[in-house]
Structure prediction request, 235 residues.
Amino acid sequence: AQTVTQSQPEMSVQEAETVTLSCTYDTSESNYYLFWYKQPPSRQMILVIRQEAYKQQNATENRFSVNFQKAAKSFSLKISDSQLGDTAMYFCAFWGEAYSGGGADGLTFGKGTHLIIQP
Amino acid sequence: DAGVTQSPTHLIKTRGQQVTLRCSPKSGHDTVSWYQQALGQGPQFIFQYYEEEERQRGNFPDRFSGHQFPNYSSELNVNALLLGDSALYLCASSSGGLYSGANVLTFGAGSRLTVL
Prediction:
């Protein structure tokens, strides 16, 4: 079974600053994907960024980038030039392709980090 | 283009009752997954439906059941409600058969269930 750990329950930064959210995971699988999802007060989960484990290059989406350290099983999210609209819960998630029995048990999520962007 | 829609948005039940939650997937999606998100926690995978059958299931008791209709919409049923079933129930849809990390999951805004 895989686990996802987010060690920062809450973070607060000033608008326009850069912030990094941490995530570590544990798995024995070799083929997997990692995700960062944003959940604003509206409750709808929105995909921020996705990383395929076999890709060496770190994924980037505009102001959002990841630092994927496969050997260390670490997957941190960096938000540059933070904006008030970035205030939300951020969840790190894992999906792995299980070899035995086929299929996978959906996404495995961490407990989340509440990010607050101060004006 | 409507995304994933869920109903009802909020509901209150008492212990022992049964509840049905509904989900309409995003247009063009044929696979529906359900997640339970307890307060202060990340979502947990309940099960996934594709071609009107339950294809994958997380670690949830048989009190949790579901259904997928020919139009790809889905229902989540929970019987004999417990206080611990209080949570936000999220529906997510995708296309291309059983979900894999290569697909894009689109989530709804959830149904908030309170069990008294």
In short: The mean pLDDT of chain A is 91. The two ends of chain A are 41 Å apart (CA to CA). Chain A touches chain B at residues 4, 32-33, 35, 42-47, 50, 52, 91, 93, 95-97, 103-112 (CB under 8 Å). Residues 3-118 of chain A form a domain with the Immunoglobulin-like fold (CATH 2.60.40.10).
